Amino acid sequence: MNSEAIMCDIPRKKLCTRTWESQAPTSSVVSSLGSMGRQGEDTGKTAPEDNFSNHMCNILGQLEDVFKNAVHVAYPDVADPVIQIQLSKHADYQCNAAMSLAKTLKKNPREVGQTLVKSVAPSPMIAKMDLSGPGFINIFLSQDFIKQQVTNVIINGVTSPPTKPMRVVIDFSSPNIAKEMHVGHLRSTIIGDSISRLLEFLGHDVLRLNHLGDWGTQFGMLIAHLQDCFPDFASKPPPIADLQTFYKESKRRFDEDEAFKKRAYGAVVKLQAHDPLHIKGWQEICDISQKEFEKVYERLGIHITNRGESYYQSRMEAIVKELNDAGLLEEDNGRKVMFADGADIPLTIVKSDGGFTYDTSDMACIKNRIDEEKGEWLIYVTDAGQSQHFKSLLACAKRAGIYRPSVTRLDHVPFGVVLGEDKKKFKTRSGDTVRLVELLNEGLQRAGEKLKEKDRHKVLTPEEFTKAQEAVAYGCIKYADLCHDRARDYIFSFDRMLDFRGNTAAYLLYALTRIRSIARTAGVNRDEIIAEAKKKPIDLDHEKEWKLARTILRLPDILVRITEDLYLHPLCEYLYEVSTVFTEFYDNCYCLEKDETGKIVKINMWRLMLCEATAQVMEKCFSILGIETVDKM
Fold first, then answer.
1. Cα separations (Å) of 234 from 240, 413, 629?
2. Less packed terminus of the chain by CB within 10 Å, N or C?
3. Which residues pair with residue 624 across a beta bridge?
4. Which helix (H) or strand (E) holds 457?
């Protein structure tokens, strides 16, 4: 049997979101279930194996489509049936559709269940079905199907379920120029990067934007201070070693020196008028800041396009004119504000002094991202404290005709606060905000100490030790954030995140290296495993082999689910589950058999194949989470 003979596809389903509007009905997932049809039936569509042979199957979504079709066959008058399918202790999956249908149809749920089972079209996924209880449909997957799917993972690697590519614009991180990145930027940066990685893996065209705070009145005082400290800055780049200290010095002078404050205001006017000298000073300050930001991004493996508020200056002027001409702005104590249904707080579009605000900038942003960037899906990753602002922004953009929920999907991805172990906002001992560089340095130091405690420096080369140290340090910081429900606050604890037990990156990274070491111990390389897989599908005779195979094939289910609400912690829970199920398999199934002297006497290749598939799935999970893996630890 060809290793690509049985393939499938995910269903067309609405991508639900946790925003304030019903979203665009168009989905980013593709379905070709209709091509399966009933046996002997020509549906006029290309079979999934022809179109999607290099894609993993979203089994849960496919089953939902199978039973949705069954409902249409059995009860054609029922519109939009609710199909609930979940994992089951009594079978592989369980469908509960009969229960809700019975209420609608006013029939016995068991009778409805029996009718649905008879109406299910033949599927390569399903071996058999039976009823339990009042009408629960137990679904048992085909062993041939599971074997083929696992074999495909070994040969082709972990591939995405089929998707309809969308143009996605995601806004995350967004520090302010002339200020250092601090712990408050950590969550937006990590969450935004992981969402970007997920959507890129699924085949979407993703534009990652860093909405830098690079414009505004604070630049007046910075440029005035620059002129005093480095009068030749226009011809010689200013050697500012610590921009944060430079900022504090200029702020102190602004607060205490009236003459300096007056000069600062004058500098703002000249900057906004694009005076060449002031633009040069502004550019120097931005360049210094962005170089410092890039050092942090490089350590964390973040790729992002800088696009600050300055980019939208002309667009802000245009949006103000557009809103004003449309009669959407109202006078309020000298300000120009905009109201809309659903906006509890109006947007301030023009200040009483004629200046623009963050509201103006965000209205210009959303228009730019939809009209110019052709964004079909916009994502904003910010702290939960901005939820009210985004509610008002969406309502006003909708009223202005810029944002249409039926055409564009828009998600605000809010997150909670990082707390210290005292359960208060994470601060230094002196009460200052924790600098992100210092946090990463401490993580690196603690990871090194932890690895040395385990004598890893004695068995790894210096290069291998450094790689492991960085992977553990940065991986643990990321995983500790992503494994929690992002909407909630979480406690930052190096001791907990560097624990090599339980659901931590330290444990999971180590578990992956142990899995990879099995084939290495046997002297079998990946090419040999792939060659074996191409000969015939994998064997899954032991119950623990079967359990592990089913578990690793649930990855597409998890990824599709995440696209619905953009909560990433289910992926972390799944990764931990894969590692624990693998441990059960390894404890019960010998991959290598040795004699009394410890010499390998037998290599069970089909089990090495299962190790390879497991490692590939874990590596893909780590990749989506933005965590580097290592071969040895």
1. 14, 41, 45
2. N
3. none
4. helix 456-459
